[in-house]
Amino acid sequence: MRLYTIQIEKHQQLAVECGNHRLCLLKDFGIKYESMNELITSISDAELEDIRYKAAHNDFGNALRSYGMGDAHICAPIPKPMQDIICLGANYDEHMRELGAKTEGYTIYFSKRVNEATGAFDAIPSYSGYVDSLDYEVELAAVIGRDAKAVSVSDALSHVFGYMIINDVSARNLQFRHQQWYLGKSLDGFSPMGPCIVTADELPDIQNLSITCTVNGELRQSSNTSYMIQPVANAISELSQAMTLKAGTIIATGTPGGVAMGRKPPVFLKSGDEIVCEIEKIGMLKNTVE
Known about the structure:
Helix content is about 20%, strand content about 30%. The chain is of the alpha+beta class. The strands form three sheets. Strands 1, 2, 3, 4, 5, 6, 8, 9, 11 and 14 form a ten-stranded mixed β-sheet that branches. Strands 13-12-15-16 form a four-stranded antiparallel β-sheet, with no helix packed on it. It has a two-stranded antiparallel ribbon with strand order 7-10. A hairpin with a 5-residue loop joins strand 2 and strand 3. The longest helix has 13 residues. It is globular. The two termini are about 30 Å apart. The model has no long low-confidence stretch (mean pLDDT about 95).
């Protein structure tokens, strides 16, 4: 099941992908949650199954509204995350090698502030004059669906509501100037995500998905989630030993090699560049730098 937040007539609405890739409003199915955060933290298994059934069997009869993908503005699935995004740094061998980092040791965890997430097809601000080394990072994101505390690796994925794509846009000059990653990754507009949340039941083998990023049609990143150093289940389990991962928590699981900073010489983003981040079975983000 593919769940969206879309904007219709200046109002954000929750939607599900029905037949012919059309979007149906959840409220037309009798589901009254006002936001994706509310849905994730409150929905019952029975309600989810009801949405799944109605989306699969909807024939657009009885004057039920539906929208084509180009008829509504597709927002980030979770426009305003409840907490900072938890990020894994250097979680692919190839990315560690291009950074000249050791491929052994404990996982790097850091956080990324997101006041409001950028939609799947919205512009990324350039911050000209303030940022001189704008970079892209395609990442798989897991969204926690029920609180996880001290969970085992074998039980970890049962706590995942679904998955989406994140572009962990980064200002490298700020990232390294301050010797800590938080500021350089937390500028407003630096978290495109989406295009939807694909529920976990649709992706039983999350560690075997192709993941790519192109810039102006040039392939920059190309890998597979099987190459993660710390798989999704292991990261959830490890994090949950130290903290309660509340429902709605977003975990970005790291980027493959091929970022602009790792090229020789670096080729950073500039105004007008189009970045396309894709993950198999989830979809794509297509964002242009302002």
